[in-house]
Protein: 2509_t:CDS:1
Organism: Racocetra fulgida
Amino acid sequence: MKHFLVTILALASFNFLQIPSTGLQSDPEITTLKFKLNPFSLSRQCLNTTTTILSELEFAECINFPAFRPLFEKKNFDAIEQLSGDFNEDIKIIKSIEPALVEVSKDFCKFPKCQDRFIQSHIQSTIVACQEDLKNNNTLAQVIFAAFVFYSPLHDSVCFENKQDIFCWDEFVRNNISLPNFTSIEKLNNNNIVDKICTLCNRAIVNTFFNFIPTSFLAQVIISLKKVKEYKQLLAFVCGDDFVNGTIIDPKTGKQIPSTTSTYIPTSTSNSLPKNT
Ligand SMILES: *[C@@H]1O[C@H](CO)[C@@H](O)[C@H](O)[C@H]1NC(C)=O
Ligand SMILES: *[C@@H]1O[C@H](CO)[C@@H](O)[C@H](O)[C@H]1NC(C)=O
Ligand SMILES: *[C@@H]1O[C@H](CO)[C@@H](O)[C@H](O)[C@H]1NC(C)=O
Ligand SMILES: *[C@@H]1O[C@H](CO)[C@@H](O)[C@H](O)[C@H]1NC(C)=O
Ligand SMILES: *[C@@H]1O[C@H](CO)[C@@H](O)[C@H](O)[C@H]1NC(C)=O
């Protein structure tokens, strides 16, 4: 059941997180990532712990596990396995399974959001159990780790809808964005994708992440504050300063929503964590 969760979270984050670590997909430093979702690539301890955690009753109340089933139909799963970290290619793949993803999101968003306190309370044991996997850069372990750490902003981002009741991630996909092969923000600005990037939807999503990251020590292990600052500057340049001013407006209702913060407090710094890049 665990891969239902990690897969959707990984998909949801494709836009803003290079799982495990390097940032926006348009980042020139991007490294190719092949999803290795085979649970048997995990150490027994890591698999056991994550499976045990995810079978807790409280998860069943806030995560609609059966909702993820369509992702494991062969056609969809095969497509997911093709995700490579190349933005332009991945967006085509996502588009090809869009109807399944819409169904998954609808069912996923019907359930109340898990308490951050509850999610965060399991992070420490995941880090301990999956230490070796994380050290060995096991992709699935990294996805699980990132999914726990970013649960709160990911949940919000998956579930944001625009005024036409279309999921924000879907609006993004439908906008047929393809990123130019750019290395400088000037080139991005010259390209006529600005209208498709500077949307209410994207604004809500980026502010959700940008407000969350400074409150989470572990999020900063995955994406540094320096990177966040760079992305903010890039988006401010392209979309204007207000775009990243921290105010989160629900794109559907136009109402302001409060930021969520992380409640995780590390009990020890001696655990090996995935390296920040
Ligand atoms: C899995 O973990 C439980 C405790 O959480 C333990 O009782 C069990 O022996 C473990 N199984 C394996 C195969 O390590
Ligand atoms: C894991 O990734 C980090 C950073 O990319 C690298 O420095 C390290 O050597 C890798 N470890 C293994 C075991 O491949
Ligand atoms: C995206 O592409 C499809 C077909 O490839 C087209 O029907 C649709 O109008 C395009 N959407 C936008 C917003 O350009
Ligand atoms: C994009 O740029 C890199 C170097 O900056 C180059 O190696 C690559 O071939 C380019 N790709 C395309 C599709 O032009
Ligand atoms: C951010 O910008 C919007 C206008 O686009 C404004 O309504 C809001 O008050 C601003 N928030 C802050 C914190 O300045």
Observations:
- Residues 36 and 139 are 6 Å apart (CA to CA).
- Strands lie at 248-249, 256-257.
- The pocket of 2-acetamido-2-deoxy-beta-D-glucopyranose (ligand 5) is lined by residues 242, 245-247 (CB under 6 Å).
- The first helix runs from residue 2 to 12.
